[in-house]
């Protein structure tokens, strides 16, 4: 019995040795940045040939201008399911915690937490935007800066949507809760902070944009707490606070629009 088993083992080893050379060429390793550069260099002559061909042959006149809405739909798949699940859990925890505090303190929690969640999502997007992907996206006809901006806008829109749904829940769960002032209290800073981030990201690079977003978030939070404390001693009306918040919305929207216009022509992104 042992001799038969030994003979079978020897046959398996012999078969393995015979097939080793045949299958060695099929072993695949993870591509490195050098492999990516070599691939792009090999494809570059084909790109140059396409650029030299007659424009009518490729029907360039039928090509549409870059569409932000199209990119937003296309880039949703960039974020995997665990990112969406984690985001939903965070907002559920924020909602449940805020529903148990005093109604006058609720806006402060949202004004602090939602811009922070937005900045964390922006940082996650940048960290997962690896060097190989940036190299490939740099040669696509679609502006790579607009690709990155569209992913950041998805983060921004997600936080706005979850925050609005959470706010509507609080309006039913808490007494003496005024929905519209509450929404404006945290939406206005969020729009301004994201506008500052997007503007500096397109003009000075991602890291400076992220840093300026953090600075504006801290400044607005400290300023809001100070204004809230002074409102008890000074005669600061709700209409004056609403005008400041409205100014933040307008300024943030203008900064975001400028960033969008810049992304249409920007062919590379500074880190």
Shape: elongated
Structural class: mainly alpha
Instruction: Give the number of domains.
Output: 1
Largest sheet: none
Question: What is the C-alpha radius of gyration, as a whole number of Å?
Answer: 27 Å
- Poorly predicted ranges: none
Secondary-structure element order, N to C: HHHHHHHHHH
Mean pLDDT: 78
Helix content: over 70%
Number of strands: 0
Query: So how many helices?
Result: 10
In terms of quaternary structure, what is this? Answer: single chain
Report how far apart the termini are.
Answer: 68 Å
Describe the structure.
By secondary structure, the protein is an all-alpha fold. The chain has one domain (76-271). It is 76% helix and 0% strand. It contains ten helices and no strands. The chain has helices spanning 2-23, 33-52, 68-75, 81-98, 106-127, 131-137, 144-173, 179-204, 206-231, 238-263. The chain is elongated and about 90 Å long. The mean pLDDT is 78.
């Amino acid at each position: 019995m042992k001799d038969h088993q030994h003979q079978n083992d020897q046959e398996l080893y012999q078969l393995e040795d015979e097939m080793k050379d045949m299958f060695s060429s099929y072993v695949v390793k993870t591509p490195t940045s050098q492999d990516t550069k070599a691939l792009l260099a090999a494809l570059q002559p084909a790109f140059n040939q396409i650029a030299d061909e007659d424009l009518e042959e490729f029907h360039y006149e039928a090509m549409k201008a870059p569409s932000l809405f199209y990119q937003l739909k296309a880039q949703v798949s960039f974020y995997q399911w665990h990112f969406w699940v984690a985001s939903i859990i965070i907002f559920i925890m924020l909602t449940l915690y805020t529903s148990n505090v005093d109604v006058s303190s609720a806006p402060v929690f949202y004004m602090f937490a939602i811009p922070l969640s937005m900045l964390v999502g922006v940082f996650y997007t940048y960290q997962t935007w690896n060097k190989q992907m940036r190299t490939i996206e740099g040669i696509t006809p679609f502006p790579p800066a607009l690709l990155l901006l569209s992913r950041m806008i998805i983060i921004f829109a997600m936080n706005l949507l979850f925050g609005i749904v959470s706010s509507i829940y609080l309006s039913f769960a808490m007494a003496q809760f005024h929905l519209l002032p509450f929404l404006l209290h945290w939406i206005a800073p969020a729009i301004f902070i994201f506008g500052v981030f997007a503007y500096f990201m397109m003009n000075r690079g991602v890291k400076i944009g992220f840093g300026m977003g953090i600075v504006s978030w801290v400044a607005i939070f400290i300023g809001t707490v100070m204004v809230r404390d002074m409102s008890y001693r000074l005669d600061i009306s709700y209409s004056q606070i609403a005008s400041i918040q409205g100014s933040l919305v307008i300024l943030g929207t203008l900064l975001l629009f400028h960033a969008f216009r810049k992304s249409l022509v920007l062919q590379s992104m500074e880190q």
